[in-house]
Design a protein that fits this description.
The chain is mainly α. It is about 65% helix and about 5% strand. It has 27 helices and five strands. Strands 2-1-3-4-5 form a five-stranded parallel sheet. Helix 2 runs parallel beside helix 9 and helix 3 crosses helix 17. The mean pLDDT is about 90.
């Protein structure tokens, strides 16, 4: 019998385990292969919307029933649910770093503190941590933990806000829902306004302010769709309507999970909000006992994954980062290695669930003294199991504490201050300084070429006199003689000095910037850390329309992620058929998309006669000594080979193009 003033026990909605399964699998598969599971990162909005709905529903149900909400009890349960697994993951990861990956020690104490105090997403923003660039930095095993900080911020402040609204608005659900919707709209608009094409979107990806809509759309639903007021018995037409709405929501979610690219403008200017709307629609239907979707999303597999979704999410990135650091040839094992990683994630999560999450979540801490006494005296099998678990946790806490201490004593030379990152940052600054002048020079050169093109005899005369001048300068005023040992002739080096080039690339090109600009002083380079095809197309179109693109275009994209055939077609169409494109293929053995990118470029070269592939992959693969520790960026030994190989590809191609032109 229910006592007066006691809240009725909430109906457990098993179908939510199906949504949690979809969310956690989407995120894990995205991190393993972002090309196939392009929108898998959208698993996070599923968790945010579920958190908003379930917490708001819980608070409102108790407020309606008793007039107050037991905050202390709520916070205690959240602590028992979240912190045991979080602490073990943080300190176990710290222990591994101390023992096997000490290059990640810097700032470790700050990272652990930020996670424990739930401001890690703000720390990532303030320290310039990119969610999308996975090479120039010492990649962090904690990158994915931003979402837990946002959820915990809501667990802390969300109930307080809901209680305040309940008291002020006298339980007017419509007004409360409107306020939650207003917060969601402001958050979504902020995300849209802060997004800048071509700029790393990590700030808005991590931001609490730009993520609130994901939570508060769920909160708004809870105000108007409370679980304890939904009737099981509904008319057949209403049931069909509910199931149809569920089908629309689920179909929309699956569509965007496979198509919404994490760096497209549409993602931040409506796409992610639309996905959240589909998610909230699905949540509403699954929550309704008169619909069939709760039954559809209920099965033993979803129940198992859903109950362990927290551990699966938390442990995924440490497993991936540590595994891939020891087995970096991911591109050669695109199926085997991800399968092994998934097995490891599942195994560790299961151990954590059985020995940490579930036991501590059900533990009565008032019996802590009794438990310790039993730990020492109980000689049964269960007693020994508890001792082993306690000993392992103790070792993890000790090892992790050592990491915290050593991290505080380690110079902040890590994530954004490694030797490679410093070199790239310096090169980026130098490139930015010279860009404006080079862009103006290309515009001027294009105007002169237009004049010369009107007079064919003048154009041929200029070409011949230029060749003669190059040969003369090669004898009388040689340049870059130190690069002749890499296979460039002095005539080629002289020709390169006068060649206008527009280049688009990522951190690999920026890493090679000093030598590329020494060989090609007239090169205009639009390259930056983390750049991908999808963020470059609009800039290519703009330069082409402004008449500010050279006849020779150098491209080095594909390191940070694959691109679709449609994107490649847009890129080539923006450049146009009258420019020659020299594309450096990808050497990124630590990522699955290496082979896909290079195969696509080879196929594209058959279709586009003005596209020439510079085969850096096959040239450099036999020489691992040319690369930094990430096996992607050339080191000081490999940089001359990279720059001169690229130069030879361009200069040879241009010589052939000129010869063909003269024969016409």
């Amino acid at each position: 019998m229910q006592r007066a003033g006691q809240t009725k026990k909430r109906r457990f909605i098993t179908g939510f385990s199906g949504l949690r399964t979809l969310g956690v699998l989407g995120v894990i598969l995205y991190h393993l292969n972002p090309n196939v599971f392009r929108g898998g990162y959208l698993g996070v909005p599923i968790f945010l919307a579920l958190a908003g709905y379930l917490i708001a529903d819980q608070v409102m149900r108790e407020l309606r029933s008793t007039g107050h909400f037991r905050l202390r009890r709520f916070y205690g349960r959240r602590l028992k649910k979240i912190y045991p697994t979080l602490i073990v993951m943080l300190f176990a990861t710290s222990t591994y770093i101390v023992l096997f990956q000490r290059n990640l020690l810097a700032n470790l104490h700050k990272i652990i503190a930020a996670n424990l105090l739930n401001y890690y997403n703000f720390w990532q923003i303030s320290n310039g941590q990119s969610y999308f660039d996975r090479f120039a930095n010492n990649e962090s095993p904690f990158t994915h933990m931003w979402t837990l900080s946002i959820e915990n911020q809501f667990y802390i402040f969300g109930p307080l806000l809901i209680i305040l609204l309940f008291k002020l608005l006298k339980n007017r659900n419509g007004w409360m829902a409107n306020i939650a919707l207003a917060i969601s709209v402001v958050s979504a608009l902020l995300m849209a306004f802060l997004y800048q094409p071509g700029v790393d979107p990590s700030r808005i990806y991590y931001g609490t302010d730009t993520r609130l809509y994901g939570i508060f759309l769920g909160v708004a639903l809870a105000f108007v769709w409370p679980t304890d007021r939904l009737r099981t018995a509904v008319a057949r037409s209403d049931r069909w309507l509910l199931d149809g709405m569920g089908l629309v929501g689920m179909a929309g979610m699956l569509w965007l999970l496979f198509t919404l690219d994490a760096q497209s403008a549409w993602t931040y200017r409506g796409g992610m909000v639309l996905f959240t709307v589909f998610t909230v629609l699905t949540i509403a239907v699954v929550a309704h006992p008169g619909a069939d979707w709760n039954r559809i999303l209920t099965n033993p597999v979803f129940d198992w994954v859903g109950s362990r979704s927290y551990g699966l999410y938390v442990y995924q990135f440490p497993v991936m980062i540590f595994f891939e650091s020891k087995f970096p040839d991911i591109a050669n094992h695109p199926i085997l290695y991800p399968v092994i990683e998934v097995v490891l994630i599942v195994a560790i999560s299961e151990v954590s669930y059985r020995w940490i999450e579930r036991p501590i979540g059900q533990f009565d801490f008032s019996q802590l003294k009794t438990w310790f006494q039993g730990l020492l005296r109980n000689d049964s099998r269960k007693g020994w199991t508890n001792r082993i678990a306690a000993a392992l946790v103790a070792l993890i806490l000790v090892g992790g504490s050592v990491g915290v201490v050593q991290g505080s004593q380690t110079k902040a030379d890590g994530a954004d201050q490694s030797a490679l990152a410093k070199r790239i940052k310096k090169n980026q600054a130098e490139n930015d300084k010279r860009s404006k002048a080079q862009l103006a020079a290309i515009k001027s050169a294009n105007a002169e070429k237009k004049k010369a093109a009107k007079d064919k005899s003048l154009s041929e005369s200029l070409s011949k006199s230029q060749s003669a001048a190059e040969e003369s300068r090669a004898k009388e005023h040689p340049v870059n003689k130190d690069l002749e040992q890499y296979g460039l002739t002095q005539v080629q080096l002289q020709r390169a000095q006068q060649m206008s080039i527009t280049a688009f690339g990522d951190s690999v090109m920026i890493d090679g910037q000093p030598l590329l600009t020494r060989i090609f002083p007239k090169i205009y380079m639009e390259a930056k850390v983390g750049q991908q095809m999808i963020t470059t197309i609009s800039r290519v179109q703009a330069l082409a329309q402004q008449g500010a693109m050279a006849d020779v275009v150098l491209v080095g994209l594909g390191t940070n992620g694959p691109f679709s055939t449609d994107q490649l077609d847009q890129f080539m169409q923006a450049i146009g058929p009258n420019r020659r494109v020299y594309w450096i293929n990808a050497h990124v053995p630590t990522r699955q998309w290496q082979g896909q990118v290079n195969s696509m470029l080879n196929e594209a070269a058959k279709h586009y006669k003005n596209l020439h592939v510079i085969d850096w992959y096959n040239y450099s693969t036999p020489h691992p000594e040319w690369f930094s520790d990430d096996q992607v960026h050339p080191n000081p030994t490999g940089s001359p080979y990279y720059a001169t190989f690229v130069a030879k590809g361009i200069l040879t191609g241009e010589q052939q193009a000129q010869e063909q032109k003269n024969q016409q």
